[in-house]
Structure formats: structure tokens, C-alpha cells
Amino acid sequence: MVAIFLLVIMIVIYQRCIELVIARRNARYIKQAGGYEVAAGHYKWIVSLHAVFFVSLIGEVLLHVSTVSIPFYFWPFCIFCLAQLLRIWSMRSLGYFWNTRIFVLEGKKPVVHGPYRYIRHPNYLVVLIEVGMLPVTFGAWKTAVIFTVAQAIILSVRITAEEEALQKAYKYEAWMKEKGRFIPLRKQKD
């Protein structure tokens, strides 16, 4: 179980590193097109939370290897993997507009295709799913609970900042008012 865990963690960390490279490339593109970053102050907390998440997950798994049978962990891992497919779909749908930071390019329409046809923030939904399901997959229940709650708190700050910036840039609410933040086809209350 530990060998599988270490392999999965290495793959996930590698995936995060690739995402940072993509984010830097996309940031250059947006800036060259006249875009700008907003609400950068909370980004350091997001990065710190992700780093501490991996330390906590690795520590909890290696210090307390679970005795629950492998079939139990199969379903949380399947949910985690499906979330990764949603992440890829979200990133591909946003193209050069996907980033780990909040960038705005005024005069552009918001992306409303791919998963954004159904919900406002599919990538943030993925983050919540993965910080819950990846630890549960390997029996790290404390990490799952603590970091799902912590991630929900930091995402509430981020989503508010992002939606305010997008509203100013291109009347985001007019495009997304019929979409829930995380649940498809759910109207937001005015």
C-alpha cells in the first residue's frame, strides 16, 4: 500500500508542477494581450495550503498505515480520478485563460463552454474533491477533513475576489447567473 501511495503522490505532485508551468505560460500570454492580475494577496495562502496538504498527507499515511482493505479505497480513488478528468476538461476549456492566479483580460467574453456550460467553478470543485478523496483513498482521514474545510475557507475568499473582478471586466453575472458555483443547473439566489 505504501509503494502505491508514494507512486500516486509523485504523479500528483508532478501534475501540480506541470500546472505551474502552464500557469506561467498563460500569465505571460494574458499580460502580453493587455491583461492584469487581481487579488494577488491571498495567492501565497493557497500555495502554502497546498504545500502543507502534501506534507500532512504524506506524514499521516506513512506514520499510520491504514489496515482497511484495498477494495474500500477503490471508490474514493475512482472519484479522485474522475475529478482529474474534470480538471483537464476545465483547463482545456479555458485554454490560455486558465491559471492558478486570477487574471483578467477586459473586453473578452467569459468562457461558457465545456464544464462552464453547467457550473461556474469546475476547477475549484475539483480541488475540493481531491483534498477530500486523495487522503481518504489512503486512510488519511484527519488530513481529508482538515484540508477540505481549510480549502473551502480559502476558496470562498478566492471565488469572491474572482467573481468581483470578472463582473467588472465583462459583466460575468449576466453570463453565469443561471449556473451554480459547484452544482449544475442550480440557480444562484440574487
From TrEMBL:
GO molecular function, one term: protein C-terminal S-isoprenylcysteine carboxyl O-methyltransferase activity
Keyword annotations: Membrane, Transmembrane, Transmembrane helix
Membrane topology: Multi-pass membrane protein
UniProt subcellular location: Membrane
Record Gene3D superfamilies: 1.20.120.1630
Chain segments annotated as transmembrane: 6-24, 45-66, 72-89
Top-level lineage group: Bacteria
One of the record's GO cellular component terms: membrane
Main localization (coarse): membrane
PANTHER family recorded: BLL3993 PROTEIN
Protein name: Isoprenylcysteine carboxyl methyltransferase
Protein source organism: Brevibacillus laterosporus LMG 15441
